[in-house]
């Protein structure tokens, strides 16, 4: 089924919570949700906008603009600073609001600050949401924030994900620019690991729309272009956007969040996959429970990790290094007693 298929009966409205609703990513995402870009042109969408008390007025302003856009699919819009109210009965939650790293703060401070956000949100989600709940964590450090929410709320592994789709899309864009193959004709990109500078964007399995492999033409997955230009370019793209634009990626992050949730609901093409950070089931030697990015297909509304891909020794060490970073973050969370 695709978002445009006409359903036999009108689907029930979808209720979606968005945290950090007054922030810059939400300012793009909320309008795309209301326009039907995630759930298709036949589903009504109710929105729950969660903000900290100091920003609920700003979120109310966004709600007014949503109203003024007269989206035919938009149902109720609720603005609240209370997580239980925001998450009660939701089908999906985009957890975007997070605490940024302050000047001079340690990584452990960042984890502690975010543990204080994502722990309670995980519990509130578990208390109020439906069994078919889909959670996408965008707020950084996204992988570990997702692990905190999952552990605190005892969420099922199939309910929680973190976003590496922006990294995936950035990787597609770089390859398209290099090869001249349009992004729509590229299949089987993978971003492995953490949503951080240790991530491993991998062109090994990349094919064009006719199924022709592209890695060789790019000098090989372990070749100079891939390792010295492509991987660092994708991994550092967020910093590059900040230096050029003057603020961090917002519309592209919202666009990736739309892609992620739409594919989760409607599925991925059989000849393709996308990158999703989710709790490991032990695949590719990644310790169970660590939230790591893998190549994934969405089948019958659930993500499945693509199995059986081969990693060269150099690729294995890249993945291991990124997984070690995720494990270290998780150790800190445990040591600080955040879950
Ligand atoms: P903004 O600073 O524009 O907005 C964040 C909003 O979250 C603020 O309005 C703030 O009041 C709110 N907030 C803070 N704590 C909250 C809480 N406990 N409950 C509800 N709302 C809360 O940031 P924005 O540019 O929108 O980015 C949001 C997050 O996305 C950041 O953590 C950022 O690092 C992360 N990103 C993640 C990406 C990814 O690919 N996973 C890419 C884009 C982005 O960098």
Automatic annotation (TrEMBL):
The active site is at 195 (proton acceptor). NAD(+) binds at residues 20-26, 114, 121, 138-140. It holds the Pfam family Ldh_1_N. Residues 15-160 form the Lactate/malate dehydrogenase N-terminal domain. Its EC number is 1.1.1.37. Substrate binds at residues 101, 107, 140, 170. GO terms for biological process: malate metabolic process; tricarboxylic acid cycle. Keywords: NAD, Oxidoreductase, Tricarboxylic acid cycle. One of its GO terms (molecular function) is L-malate dehydrogenase (NAD+) activity. It catalyses: (S)-malate + NAD(+) = oxaloacetate + NADH + H(+). Residues 164-332 form the Lactate/malate dehydrogenase C-terminal domain. Belongs to the LDH/MDH superfamily. MDH type 2 family. HAMAP family: Malate_dehydrog_2. Catalyzes the reversible oxidation of malate to oxaloacetate. This is Malate dehydrogenase.
């Amino acid at each position: 089924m695709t978002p445009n298929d006409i359903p036999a009966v009108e689907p029930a409205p979808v209720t979606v919570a968005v945290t950090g609703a007054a922030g810059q990513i939400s300012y793009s995402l909320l309008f795309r949700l209301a326009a039907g870009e995630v759930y298709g042109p036949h589903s009504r969408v109710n929105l729950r906008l969660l903000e900290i008390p100091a920003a609920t007025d700003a979120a109310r302003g966004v709600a007014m603009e949503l109203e003024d856009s007269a989206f035919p699919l938009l149902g109720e819009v609720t603005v609240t600073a209370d997580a239980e109210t925001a998450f009660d009965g939701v089908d999906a939650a985009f957890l975007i609001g997070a605490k940024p790293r302050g000047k001079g703060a340690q990584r452990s401070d960042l984890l502690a600050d975010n543990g204080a956000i994502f722990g309670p949100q995980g519990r509130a989600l578990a208390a109020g949401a439906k069994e078919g709940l889909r959670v996408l964590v965008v707020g950084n450090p996204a992988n570990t924030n997702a692990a905190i929410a999952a552990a605190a709320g005892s969420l099922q592994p199939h309910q929680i994900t973190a976003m590496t789709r922006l990294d995936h899309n950035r990787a597609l864009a770089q390859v398209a620019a290099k090869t001249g193959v349009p992004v729509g004709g590229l299949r089987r990109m993978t971003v492995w690991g953490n949503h951080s500078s240790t991530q491993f964007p991998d062109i090994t399995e990349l094919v064009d729309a006719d199924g022709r492999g592209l890695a060789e033409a790019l000098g090989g997955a372990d070749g100079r272009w891939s390792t010295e230009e492509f991987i660092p370019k994708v991994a550092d793209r967020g910093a590059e956007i900040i230096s050029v634009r003057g603020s961090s990626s917002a519309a592209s992050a919202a666009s990736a969040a739309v892609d992620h949730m739409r594919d989760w609901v409607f599925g991925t093409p059989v000849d393709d996959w996308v990158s999703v950070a989710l709790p490991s089931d032990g695949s590719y030697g990644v310790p169970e429970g660590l939230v790591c990015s893998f190549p994934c297909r969405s089948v019958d509304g659930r993500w499945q990790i693509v199995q059986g891909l081969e990693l060269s020794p150099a690729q294995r060490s890249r993945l291991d290094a990124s997984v070690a970073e995720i494990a270290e973050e998780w150790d800190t969370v445990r040591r600080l007693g955040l879950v």
